[in-house]
Amino acid sequence: MNDFHRIRRLPPYVFEQVNKIKAAQRAQGVDIIDLGMGNPDLPAPKHVLDKLIETVGKPRTDRYSASKGIAGLRRAQANYYGRRFGVKLNPDTQVVATLGSKEGFANMAQAITGPGDVVLVPNPSYPIHAFGFLMAGGVIRSVPAEPTPAFFPALERAVQYSVPKPIALVVCYPSNPTAFVASLDFYRDLVAFAKKHELILLSDLAYAELYFDDANPPPSVLQVPGAMDVTVEFTSMSKTYSMAGWRMGFAVGNERLLAALARVKSYLDYGAYTPIQVAAAAALNGPDDCIAEMRAVYKARRDVLISSFAKIGWEIPAPEASMFAWVPIPEKFKHLGSLEFSKLLIEKAEVAIAPGIGFGEHGDDHVRIAIVENEQRIKQAARNIGKFLKSADTTLHNVVTLKKVG
Predict the structure, then answer these.
(1) How high is the pLDDT of residue 1?
(2) Could you tell me if 112 and 133 are in contact, meaning their C-beta atoms sit under 8 angstroms apart?
(3) Is 33 in a helix, a strand, or coil?
C-alpha cells in the first residue's frame, strides 16, 4: 500500500492509534467514556426526522439525486445565510450542497490544486484542511491558528518565503480544535490580505451555531464587502442539527470557484439521498428553538467540564464556541507528548480524548476534549482522571522504565 503515491504523501492517522486502544479496551468489557471524536450524541430534531420519514418511499425519491443539491435545499441554505448573516446568495450559482463539509473541502482542493501548489493552512487545524490539499498534490505551509494581530505578519512571511506563491488560505472559526472565534474586524483584514496577495480564501464555518455568548454569534467572512470575490465558505448540518451521520453540508460564495467544485462533484457523486436533502431543507426552513436547546445543552456540559476538572487540579480554558475544549497537557505529562498521554488516559482512566498532534505538530502540547457525553459522564470522567493523576508519579516511573527496557 505504501507504494501508492497519494498514500505515501499522507502521514499515519494519529487518531487510529487511539481508536485501536479504545476498541481493545471495550472488547474486554471496559466502559470507556469517549470524549475524543466530535460525534454529537443528541438526537436530530423531531420535525426533521418526521420530514425524512414522510419522504422516504415516495415515488422517485430512490432515484439518483442532484450532485449540487436539489433546488429547494439550495434555496433553504441561501435563505439561512440571508437571515443569519445578512448575506445574499444566488441559490443557483452560489450554493452547492456537499456530503458534509469534509467532502466539500476535499473536492474543492481537487478542483483548485495543481501539483506543487502551495496552500496556507492553520496549525493546529482539522486534518482535512491540510490532507485534502496533500492528496490533491499540493504543498502545505503552516500559519498560526489564533486570530490575533500577530496572525498577519506571520501570513506575510509565509507568502514572502513560499515558492511558488501560495494559491489559497484556509481559515476555520469557530476553530476545530482550538475553539478560537474570529471577529468581523479580523475577517475584514483577512479579505484585504487575500485580495492583496491574490489568494483564494476557504473558510470552514461548521460551528457557526455552537457558541456560548448569545450577544456575539460568530460572523461569516462573507459579511465583509467584497469577500465574495475570493471566498468559498463551508458549513455543515452535523453539529447544528445533530445530523453528523446524514452527511449534509454546503459550500457557498464565489461563483467561479463553486462552478469548479460542482464540476468535480458531478464526476464523483449524485448527491445525498433525496429524502435526506428534503429533510435538511426542512431543518433550515424550520423553527430555531431546537438550535437554542442544543446550545444550552453544550453550554451546561462545558461548564460542568470546567468545574469538575478544576476540582482535580486540571484547569481547562473555557471555550467560547464549538463542542471542544483545547486543553494544555498537565505539566508533569508534557514530556510524553499528546499521543502517549492520550493512550495513558484510555488505559489508566478509561477516558478517551483526542491527542493534539493529530491536528498538526504545533498541537502536541494540548489535547482536545469533546463534550459529547452527558453531564454525569463528564463528571465521572473527571473522577477517573483525578484518581489517575494522584497515582501519576508511579505511572510515569513505570512508563519511563518500560521505554528504557524496550
Answers:
(1) 47
(2) no
(3) strand
Answer yes or no: pTM beyond 0.85: yes
Q: Cα 285–290–296 angle (5° rounding)? A: 145
User: Using one digit for the tens of pLDDT, what is the confidence trace for 252-300?
Assistant: 999 999 999 999 999 999 899 999 999 999 999 999 999 999 999 999 9
Tell me how far apart the alpha carbons of residues 15 and 93 are, in angstroms, rounded to a whole number.
37
User: Which residues lie closer than 8 Å to 315 by C-beta, 6 or more apart?
Assistant: 309
| Average pLDDT over the chain, rounded to an integer | 92
- Interacting residues of 219 by C-beta distance below 8 A, sequence separation 6+: 85, 182, 183, 184, 187
Q: Are 393 and 375 in contact (CB under 8 A)?
A: no
Tens of pLDDT along 32-50? 999 998 889 999 999 999 9
Set out the domains of the chain in order of their start, with CATH numbers.
5-43+290-405 (3.90.1150.10), 46-285 (3.40.640.10)
C-alpha cell at 192: 484585504
Whole-number Å distance between alpha carbons of 74 and 395: 54
Rounded Cα–Cα distance for residues 145 and 326 (Å)? 12
For residues 351 and 35, the answer to whether their CB atoms sit within 8 Å is yes
Has residue 397 got a pLDDT over 90? no
Task: Yes or no: say if 215 and 255 are a contact pair by the CB < 8 Å rule.
Answer: no
Give bridge partners of residue 369 from the DSSP assignment: 325
Beta carbons within 8 Å of 291's beta carbon, 6+ residues apart:
209, 240, 241
